[in-house]
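Why do we bother with a discrete structure alphabet at all? Because it lets us treat a fold like text: something you can write down, compare, and reason about line by line. To make this less abstract, here is a complete entry for TIGR04053 family radical SAM/SPASM domain-containing protein. Read it the way you would read a sentence in a foreign language you are learning: slowly, and without expecting to understand everything at once.
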Amino acid sequence: MSEQTTAGQATTEQATAARRPPRPLRHVHRDPAAAPFIVIWEATRACPLACRHCRAEARPDRDPAELTTAEAAGLMRQITAFGRPAPLFVITGGDPFERPDLYELIAEARALGLSPAVSPSATPALTPRSLARVREAGASVISLSLDGASAAPHDAFRGFGGVFDRTLDAWRAARDAGLKVQVNTTVNRTNLTDLPGIARLVHEYGALLWSVFFLIPTGRGRALTSLTARETEDVLNFLYDVGRTVPVKATEAHHFRRVALQRHVLAERGADHERALGLGPLYRDLRERALDTGLIGAERTRRPPIDVNAGRGLVFVSHTGEVSPSGFLPLTAGNVREQPLTDIYRTSPLFTALRDTGRLTGRCGACEFRAVCGGSRSRAFAVTGDVLAEEPWCAYEPGSFPYPRELAGLL
Ligand code: SF4
């Protein structure tokens, strides 16, 4: 084959690829039964803040039973035993800055070939100098929480005044230090109408990702009022709309992947998604607010949601080394002090059950989307006590999507 023909074909293929709409979902490259896509380590539960939704019910003092520096390095070596490509490694809390060995831990992770990300709280410890040290030690990403588009709602949610301004300062300082920033927002009844404003801030300041977290009634989050399943559908569809302008991830709302597939097929069919999906007044209100701020309509490439769920690509290690399928699912499959993380992840009955979507019950068990969605196992457990029960915040009736043939090639 001549070089000219090859180049010509490549040009044709590139042109075809450019015309072809991007795939609506992203799948992990490795078998999720063999290795997680992401390992989240709760380095400490100590934190000076008192956020209303805190999963860890964080407290001011460190637990003497926390993994030591040497044990934490051992955990990192266990993560490298999953092989290449290494899982993403997130150091969270509590507030990781409560550990005096934080920079040492980041450097150790980097030396072992991991790419550590740090998830700090917006405390006075978050200074331009400390963020620069995080970068120098080898982290490339930090996450910051933003639960309101202005100071009043954000500070009320976080339990202290001044946290909103400190978060924006840290955002700028992190960027200046060369760190990428992920912004985390917890959706709750008090900030629903603020979501377009928060998206606007994410767009203006620039972020690697806007991770929108749907509450799990666990920890201090038990005291917050839940959304209904229908409201959740409205918010997920709004997020899909702004996904053209800001890179969005829905956390603990795995049915965002179902929404992405539905919207993709409906768009291909030229169908009215609002009517086809029965979206409600909350969706229309959020969409109008987003249109007012110019957030909808951009032509940026959408970031497809990735197919990861508790125990299926995701593993959480607590401050004392307990291993769970998610930080919001208080079931333990073992402890890294006693058993390698690779064994626990690959062979424990809890993790293997969660990877078998054929064991799901209720609507999730009957759902054509279950292999790519599966619902939030953490919320099912928190609400019903059964980790395999149906997702309580999903309104979908299995089998009701009218274009099954179009879906089949995408699942
Ligand atoms: S019923 Fe379950 S599997 Fe189906 S879309 Fe809803 S949450 Fe996902």
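What the structure line is telling us, in plain words: Confidence is low (pLDDT under 50) at residues 1-20. The first strand starts at residue 38 and ends at 42.
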